[in-house]
Specification:
Shape of chain B: globular
Helix content of chain B: under 10%
Largest sheet of chain B: 7 strands, mixed
Structural class of chain B: mainly beta
Number of strands of chain B: 11
Order of helices and strands of chain A: EEEEEEEEE
Helix content of chain A: under 10%
Shape of chain A: globular
Number of strands of chain A: 9
Structural class of chain A: mainly beta
Distance between the termini of chain A: 37 Å
Oligomer: heterodimer
Strand order of the largest sheet of chain A: 1-9-8-3-4
Largest sheet of chain A: 5 strands, mixed
Strand content of chain B: over 45%
Chain lengths: 110, 111
Amino acid sequence: DAKTTQPPSMDCAEGRAANLPCNHSTISGNEYVYWYRQIHSQGPQYIIHGLKNNETNEMASLIITEDRKSSTLILPHATLRDTAVYYCIVRVEYGNKLVFGAGTILRVKS
Amino acid sequence: NAGVTQTPKFQVLKTGQSMTLQCAQDMNHEYMSWYRQDPGMGLRLIHYSVGAGITDQGEVPNGYNVSRSTTEDFPLRLLSAAPSQTSVYFCASSSPYNEQFFGPGTRLTVL
């Protein structure tokens, strides 16, 4: 699975959009971009995933660049409960092996 | 649905002791996995299973055994606990092509 690079930490004001970047320059054509988050040592929680088109669900939006070498997770209206570690992971869709990096610590502040 | 359940939530062992961490899921998922998370780090894959009777090693399998006799259960056995195995252990399950669901974790301390 391809390796990802994320900033170690970010701050965001409550109510504003949080934009979390991820670089995955060695991603293969059959690998998807997945985002998980981990709130205060709980088990990781799935957020969203995509292949090459932008995706949106009730939690977030995922923007993938045309060359697929980077992506951005967008939380449109961050709340204090969104404070967590966010992990960007690339993997083939048919498989259950997730390779976690250190992730980005997102701090939402009032 | 209870989702993915793990027992115990906390455990303290002495070096050399053995124990089994339990994991169960009620979603009829084929895939199950065990991860460990050390302080300040991401999760690392220990063992995984793609179905009953099938298991394979992940990134850090040494010191751990698994078996998968049923779809629902995927226990993780520590053969002879060492201080280096002090960690938080997460179990996860999924069906093919879908996201993984994680349990609440077991916090293990080995003295």
